[in-house]
Amino acid sequence: MHSPEATGAQVATVVDFFRDADAASDSPLLWSLTHQPQITHALSGLFHGNAALVQLRVWVFLQLASQGDAQLPRETIDEMFHALRPEALETVLKRFRDVGLLVWDESLRIYTLPPIAQRVAAMLAPLASETVPDADDDSAELAALLGQVVGANQLGAVDAGQVRLLHAQLARLHGEFADAIASGSEFRLREARKRYDRAATLIDRASETITAIISNSHGHVVLERAARGMGQAQSKLLAMASQFNRALQQMDRQRVTLGTTGITSTDVKRWLQSAPGLHRLIDGAIGCTTSLATLAQHELLDVVEAEFERDRPAPLQDEALPASQEAPEGSLKAVALPVELTDLNTLLAGWVGDGEEAGVHAVADALLGSNPADTRYAQVAYRAQLMPLLGDPQAEVLPGATGAFARQPWRVQWLATQKRIRHPQVELLSQGTLVPVGALPTEPSEPAKETHTHG
After folding, report:
1. What's the superkingdom here (predicted)?
2. Cβ distance 61 to 100 under 8 Å?
3. Is the entire prediction scored with pTM above 0.90?
């Protein structure tokens, strides 16, 4: 079998590494990389070779990129790198010319950095920091990612790729902190809490930018999905502060103080972790080893048999079915409707029975009833909700008081105004009229869709 590196010379494009060309075209990230061959070619030339050569090239390149002059004469470069051997410097500059990181003008004998070199220098900007982060300290990586996202947002050039990288870093931190909490190790927990505090401080400083990205990503589906995922990861990470507090409090409760010395079990554990040659502490502490005197075979068998009998499940017992019982007597009761519906039916039927078929009544008279002062707000609201049932085709076929109310020869016509009334529980009441069916016009107006009763 041949590795991809071994067969790289026989492959024309990156698509040739895939089993199916369609699978390669489905990745937006791979599509973006294949359409930026200058970047990948420059990075390949910069980082190809052993670690010493890579460090030399990166150092020379960052030194050149940090110069303030747009043009760099060869004499200036020789002065800048006078400590290097001439053949080493010439090899590095030739590599930069080959991959497009430097442009040489033979007539003027000057070097210039093309735009592609500026982009590569921006990628390598974290390497130019004077402080070297610890291997276990991920705050530098998080700060770099946050700086890219915040800066791109200020310039209005933030994209989904940057947001996804930050989301992945936050998710990794959450997983590492969760493992530290679940480990039960006090030292690991306290070290993780220091890292968490640094990460939380960075996220808190960039929280406004993260909120702005989420709120301004509407219309860009990929960016909006990435921004929402990053917001959820941020919330989950910031919510871990309470978990750290509970775990540390549990550790404090488990700490034991050795007598009146003031030395705790944590101090002893820390001393044991730092003390050299722990095996020498037991020199002379054990005079003789313990040995097993006698073992009786029949006693061992008795103990084993007893253990087997104790752990053996009890056999299932036959249980008779319960005796028959007579079913209790029951009754079917219908749900009683509120008395307000019956009273409203009686009131409307009375208006028709008085010979006032052509008369028009105010809705307020029906809502407040025959004793307006004694009517409660709940009764007025319930009657107002019943008014749309008048003349409803589906309700007219129902039996009982509801169907009788729907078959009443009245129709309600609401107005868009309200009237202030003197009532102990109702201040404003929507105005309207109850019109007999015979007095309605040929083309009835559209009934009101809402009923407003203000208490």
Report:
1. Bacteria
2. no
3. no
